[in-house]
Design a protein that fits this description.
Blueprint (H helix, E strand, L loop, with lengths): L8 E2 L10 H14 L3 H5 L4 H17 L16 E4 L5 E4 L5 E3 L2 H12 L22 E2 L2 E2 L1 H6 L4 E5 L5 H9 L4 E4 L7 H12 L3 H19 L9 E8 L4 E5 L5 H7 L3 E2 H4 L6 E3 L2 H7 L3 E5 H6 L2 H5 L9 H4 L3 E4 L1 H4 L6 H12 L4
Parallel strand pairs: 4-7, 7-8, 9-11, 9-13, 13-14
Antiparallel strand pairs: 1-14, 2-3, 5-6, 9-10, 10-12
Helix pairs in contact: 1-3, 3-16, 4-7, 7-8, 8-16
């Protein structure tokens, strides 16, 4: 299967999945609609069910769409005063015009059922429901003028949002700005959801979304084959910029791989930084069974054949067996409501055939 940039693919075991798609859609639809159940979790314990869940997850990610919580959209109960990650206390009195300055934050807002209140987006909000909204960033920099022209009643940012002068200009105009810590690991997803729901006056919706995600993650993890612990190396590559890095502790991929029942090869090899330049020695130490990458990164080095030309990769078990899994850039480390779909796919793709 060739990487297309639209969704995840694995360069091995390409056949046999379409037959499972009917079962897959039923499994995943039930989990999303009902928030997941004990029955849903147990259904993921067989290899066939794991493959079915992965196939359905691929379909969902290919649609690039958000599945809101069931039922009527929540009604914000305001005002609320919340902690902002820049050390401030922020009071939100009106959530009728919400402007998230981060794609992951926007995804949570839409999934909470408040998408019809969102008035703009930043460049990283690329899912279908947000695509037609006005963009308020140039490259990754926020334009204060563009933000203020949309008359937001609350802005949601994170500590990486900048430039800081633009954020301060928005705040000086009287708009409440709630700053959040970035999500860099799986456990951050529920904490971030709780904070966003609290800031928008819909805490019960936040609890419901967290329950749904936790149930979906449990169902995905139930598909891990007993006794299977493959070593997976996350490689961050940008061939055009000569960036060749291997993930280690704190890369973000390490927490995803743990949830999928795999071992992060970089961390196992003693790499205690999020990213380290790739060397032949580092790869020889890591000895990954599978390589995990972002799709654009794989494309930037010429696909699988180009990847195998990087010194040391062809000599790893992953290189020898051509076992490379790639996933769309914005989804793989997005850490949001669609992250359980990522785990569904990883559970199926990184483990050996039974």
């Amino acid at each position: 299967m060739r990487a297309t940039g639209r969704g995840p693919s694995v360069h091995r075991r390409a056949g046999g999945r379409l037959a499972a798609l009917g079962l897959a859609l039923g499994l995943l639809t039930a989990a999303c609609a009902g928030g997941g159940t004990g029955a849903g979790a147990s259904s993921g314990t067989s290899p066939g069910a794991a493959s079915a869940r992965a196939a359905a997850a691929e379909e969902r990610l290919a649609e690039n769409s958000i599945v809101p919580l069931e039922g009527a959209p929540p009604t914000p109960v305001l005002p609320v005063t919340v902690d902002s990650s820049d050390g401030r206390r922020v009071t939100v009195e009106d959530a009728s015009r919400i402007l998230p300055l981060n794609g992951g934050v926007a995804e949570i807002v839409f999934t909470l059922g408040l998408g019809d209140r969102v008035v703009g987006r930043d460049i990283t909000a690329t899912f279908e429901e947000a695509r037609k909204l006005p963009q308020v960033t140039r490259a990754h920099d926020v334009s204060a003028e563009s933000v203020l022209s949309l008359r937001p009643t609350v802005v949601l940012a994170d500590t990486d949002t900048g430039p800081k002068e633009a954020v301060q200009q928005i705040r000086d105009a009287g708009v409440p700005v709630v700053v959040l810590d970035p999500a860099t690991k799986l456990s951050d997803v529920t904490a971030r959801t709780t904070r966003i729901a609290a800031a928008l006056g819909v805490p019960e919706a936040g609890k419901a979304l967290n329950k749904r995600m936790n149930d979906e993650l449990a169902a995905a993890h139930a598909g891990v084959p007993e006794g299977s612990r493959p070593k997976v190396a996350f490689l961050y590559l940008r061939g055009s910029a000569a960036v060749y890095l291997i993930g280690g502790k704190g890369s973000g991929a390490d927490s995803l791989l743990a949830a999928a029942g795999a071992v992060d090869a970089g961390t196992e090899a003693g790499l205690d930084r999020p990213f380290t330049p790739i060397t032949t020695e580092a790869l020889a130490q890591a000895q990954p069974d599978v390589i995990l990458m972002m799709t654009k990164g794989l494309e930037s080095v010429g696909g699988l054949d180009g990847l195998l030309q990087i010194p040391g990769i062809a000599q790893t078990p992953a290189g020898l067996n051509r076992r490379v899994v790639d996933m769309e850039d914005g989804v793989l480390l997005g850490f949001g409501p669609r992250t359980p779909l990522v785990i569904d796919i990883l559970v199926d793709r990184v483990h050996q055939d039974g």
